[in-house]
Amino acid sequence: MTPHPPAQRSVPGAARALAHCHELARISSLDDAIERVHLSTEHKIANALAAAWMQEVGLDTWVDEAGNLCGRLEGHKPGLPALVLGSHLDTVTDAGAYDGMLGVMLAIEVVDRIRRSGRRLPFALEVVGFTDEEGTRFGNALMGSRAFAGLWDPAWTELEDRKGVTLRDAAKNFGLDPDAIGDAARRSEDLVGYLETHIEQGPSLLDADRALAVVSSIAGARRLALTVTGRAGHAGGTPYARRRDALVGASEIIVEIERIAKRTDTVATVGRVRAFPGGVNVVPGVARFSLDLRAESDERRDAAFEEIEAFARDVCERRGLAWQADEFYRADAVVCDPALRFAVEQGIRATGDDEPMVLWSRAGHDGMAVQAVTGFAMLFLRCGNDGVSHHPDEIVAESDVEAALDAFEATVLAVADARG
Ligand code: HGY
Ligand code: MN
Ligand code: MN
Predict the structure, then answer these.
(1) What is the whole-number distance in angstroms between the Cα of residue 91 and the centre of ligand 2?
(2) Residue 364 to residues 38, 178, 262: CA-CA distances in angstroms?
(3) How confident is the model over 13-31, as a mean pLDDT?
């Protein structure tokens, strides 16, 4: 794990937000990498630490029924609808220090700046550190923000992690009532909107030599468990003509998945492959692999999957194999709220960037869920290191973080001005 500089009592602003990210990076279930998953001990520790930082800037904090960390600063009078700022505090395995966490820390810094300015807004400000944006532990994703948006499915309490622990038991161990998770649902009349600042998680800003971008929409994603079944056999005695090698069949399909994705401007990733029974001297009888498929539009994504599945069935037919596709996650593409997106553009212009760059997000974000209960918009900031993310080499420049903080604060004030 890249050693982060020790967190010191940094001055408010970008330096403090980064120091807090580095402190959170130490809260991991792994000794030599970052992993912080839903309803884990690390989740609880990170919530407590971030709650203290929220309280330092005047936010009243609580953890909602789904495990999301929340903070609230009243507007010019108590009880006003809230403009929600935030991102997520959970991570993938072997994560970077900024995906999600930086957005929550910048939200805290914006609240601090506005509170210290003495300006009383026509809405409350809430900061949310969503849990389970990544879906690392239970395979499903956005469960924190989907509970927040009223999209909780009680069947999810029966999901199991890799150790066979159900979400129900994990919730109880965390101190939540698994049958009350749905009570985290917020009412749209209590919300003004949701704004998220996030690292781009790609090289577009880096290649364009820009620090910030406004997001137009978020790609819709489908995640599937794909299974090719043949027949195991002796690695030496089984002639090719009689083989039903599941892994070779799956490999043909995986290579074609990339070809189809490139041709159809979709983004397909096979992140996990397993062969069974897995003996070095055994022809694989079963091959299981994951598919994460995204596109700017759901139609393009779904058309690409139809092509992939048609090709897979053809390979299986030719090789005497069986094909099975099981979808375990789907989130459709969402478009940012026009008024909030305009506020983000105004925020970027306030930093001296007169023509804000526009990007559609290939990465998923909590806004995909939150949009069910209120409008959302996003501000992207540049990633260094070739735009790498979901990797310990994820990096940002403090000057870009400062620019993002200035733009984020100006965005919130633009929303306030628009509401008079
Ligand atoms: O997978 C994603 O796109 C997001 O980082 N959860
Ligand atoms: Mn991520
Ligand atoms: Mn993220």
Answers:
(1) 6
(2) 17, 26, 19
(3) 97
